[in-house]
Write a structure and sequence with these properties.
Helix content of chain B: 25-40%
Order of helices and strands of chain A: HHHHHHHHHHHHHH
Shape of chain B: globular
Largest interface: A-B, 23 and 27 residues
Number of helices of chain A: 14
Order of helices and strands of chain B: EEEHEEHEHHHEHEHEEHEHEEHEHH
Distance between the termini of chain B: 31 Å
Helix content of chain A: over 70%
Strand content of chain A: under 5%
Oligomer: heterodimer
Largest sheet of chain A: none
Number of strands of chain B: 14
Structural class of chain A: mainly alpha
Number of strands of chain A: 0
Radius of gyration of chain B: 22 Å
Number of domains of chain A: 1
Strand order of the largest sheet of chain B: 6-7-8-3-9-10
Largest sheet of chain B: 6 strands, mixed
Chain lengths: 271, 318
């Protein structure tokens, strides 16, 4: 009775990241509950819409654009602005990048990768198992937010459709996963945890900033189509459901980068 | 390739450059089953580089290697199935207990090795219920040894297996290596301590400045073994008669002490010394670098010697 080596590697990674993962769930839960507490004072409050008129356009774009701001007093507008157009994608990206960086490049630096790769297991299996750990972690984080919103929301009068919520949550998860695999690729190429995490986070934040400017700068408009953030949220999945083409594109690019990470890892000289 | 007939380990022209720095150059070795094969060289000579290529941790710039006929790169998964490995760089999962870590690694081979782990732990006096993070260097090394030996592999590749072990455990390890070889497996171990290799190995390859400079039977090595002798006399001795002895080098006198290096029998030296009043006599093995300076310096190609200088390790990566 033998267990597939991929399952052993994934199980190890899943347990090693357990403590960190709980802290993330705890933090995200706290953030969610805090915002739910704010909702009753925002709901139907005209002052917020007026406030939006005075906001600089560029700043507004960062928080989901003019439209989102104008509708901040609606359940969808509020949820988009404070969760899915900004905070959640960036947090999930950071989570995925640090997890991926630690699991691959971190273990390369620490020597655990030597222990694993001296077993009869292929490098492709090892890195794919580790990628699965990151995606599963993202799933736990996203689910915890969705559950808090679905259970806690109605208590404070914030009613959201389940379908829309799942759709937008999937977008954030894809955004996080993409940057996780970027961290795997950089880690597989360099063997350095700092470079892997830093590289992925810089790419994520830069992409996010550029997508904000692209919203408000007409000549940059074409640029936004190459930015992951646009595909994760532009179609307002919370209101309109899954934007199939956008998500497929995100998924495709993620799979492609992961395939690249496998190739890089196979060629990598351990440190 | 038939794994039953192939040599345990074979390397052909195995070479690794890091940029223009030499890690290992043109290593040709063949290690048979049933032998303990030493890989001797000073730190930084290229031992670890060579071993890491065998495990497919790093990729050769040129050349190839096989374990039981299985290509170390292309068939690495299958090769690892037959291999036990230990290195000083091996990272352990700190939060696990020793037992949990070893049982986890055993599962990769689909084997239930609980009893074997208990046996080896008892033999090496290792507490299986301690957490890895609590262990001393010596105990970590023991974890690595159990990990390497527990599945009774056909080929053991051990990088500096005795580092951090006390003398008693070194003997225990030597016994384990011998038993493993007697049972038909091959043990390939690296060391920078000449005595250790003499005690535990059948044959030895000597690497210096990234190149193999000699492959010898250990008996041959012992016959060339260089000893550092210090004789303390009641009165300051005259060094002149010692200088004319055969196989004696580096004779000097400091106060009442005579220092010299000797290869081969000490008989003539002792008899000469006995003419005076000897207060103390120390005979110890010369360190590896001294041995190299005496025996292997001229084996190096001219070009290498010029570029690597007297210590020979300046531009080498290990």
């Amino acid at each position: 009775m033998s267990t597939d080596p991929a399952v052993l590697v994934a199980g190890r990674g899943w347990r090693d990241r357990r403590r960190t993962r709980w802290w993330w769930v705890f933090g995200l839960g706290l953030y969610s509950i805090m915002l739910l507490g704010v909702w009753p004072t925002v709901e139907g409050n005209d002052q917020f819409s007026e406030l939006a008129e005075d906001y600089p356009e560029a700043l507004m774009a960062m928080f989901g654009g003019e439209e989102a701001f104008a509708s901040i007093t609606s359940p969808e507008g509020f949820t988009n602005t404070y969760y899915f157009s900004f905070m959640l994608p960036l947090l999930l990206m950071t989570f995925a990048a640090t997890a991926a960086g630690s699991l691959l490049a971190g273990e390369d630096e620490g020597g655990q990768l030597e222990l694993v790769l001296s077993q009869p297991v292929s490098r492709a299996r090892v890195i794919l198992a580790k990628a699965a750990v990151v995606v599963a972690g993202l799933l736990v984080l996203v689910s915890s937010v969705v559950i808090v919103l679905l259970v806690g929301g109605p208590m404070v009068g914030l009613h959201l459709g389940v379908g829309g919520l799942l759709a937008v949550a999937l977008g954030s998860l894809l955004f996080g996963a993409l940057h996780g695999v970027i961290a795997f690729a950089v880690g597989a190429a360099t063997g350095r945890r700092g470079a892997a995490v830093g590289g992925a986070v810089v790419i994520g934040v830069a992409g996010y900033m550029i997508s904000g400017f692209a919203e408000v700068t007409s000549w940059m408009e074409p640029v936004r189509y190459v930015l992951p953030m646009y595909h994760a949220k532009a179609a307002d999945p919370l209101t309109n459901g899954i934007p199939v083409a956008n998500y497929l594109l995100l998924f495709g690019v993620t799979a492609l980068v992961q395939a690249g990470a496998v190739v890089l890892f196979k060629r990598h000289d351990l440190r | 390739m038939d794994t039953a007939a192939a040599p345990a380990i074979q390397m052909q022209g195995l070479t690794k450059f890091y940029g223009d720095k030499r890690g290992a150059v043109d290593v040709d070795l063949r290690i048979e089953r049933g032998e303990v094969f030493g890989f001797l060289g000073p730190n930084g000579a290229g031992k670890s580089t060579t071993i890491r290529m065998l495990l497919d941790f790093i990729r050769p710039t040129a050349g190839s290697a096989q374990i039981l006929g299985l290509d170390c790169q292309r068939d690495s998964v299958e090769a690892h199935r037959h291999t036990g490995f230990l290195s000083p760089d091996l990272g352990l999962y700190e939060r696990l207990t020793v037992r949990a870590l070893l049982e986890w690694t055993a599962k990769f081979r689909g084997l239930d090795l609980d009893r074997r782990i208990d046996q080896l732990a008892e033999r090496l006096d290792l507490d299986l219920d301690r957490r890895i993070e609590e262990l001393s260097t010596g105990n970590r090394q023991k974890v690595g040894l159990v990990h390497a030996f527990m599945h009774d592999p056909d080929v053991l590749i051990l990088d500096e297996p005795t580092s951090g072990l006390d003398p008693l455990m070194r003997r225990e390890f030597e016994a384990m290596a011998r038993e493993t070889a007697d049972a038909g497996s091959a043990v390939f171990l690296s060391s920078h301590v000449i005595d250790e290799v003499e005690r535990s190995c059948d044959r030895v390859a000597i690497i210096r400045a990234s190149r193999i400079v000699a492959v010898e039977d250990v008996a041959e090595l012992a016959s060339r073994s260089l000893r550092r002798i210090v004789v303390r006399f009641a009165d300051p001795p005259d060094p002149a008669p010692y200088r004319s002895l055969e196989d004696v080098h580096g004779v000097s006198v400091v106060d009442d002490r005579l220092h010299l290096q000797a290869s081969g029998s000490l008989d003539a030296i002792v008899k000469l010394a006995a003419r005076g009043e000897v207060i103390d006599l120390i005979s110890e093995p010369a360190d590896l670098e001294e041995v190299f300076l005496h025996f292997y310096r001229d084996d190096q190609p001219e070009a290498d010697r010029a570029e690597s200088g007297p210590s020979g390790t300046n531009d080498d990566v290990d």
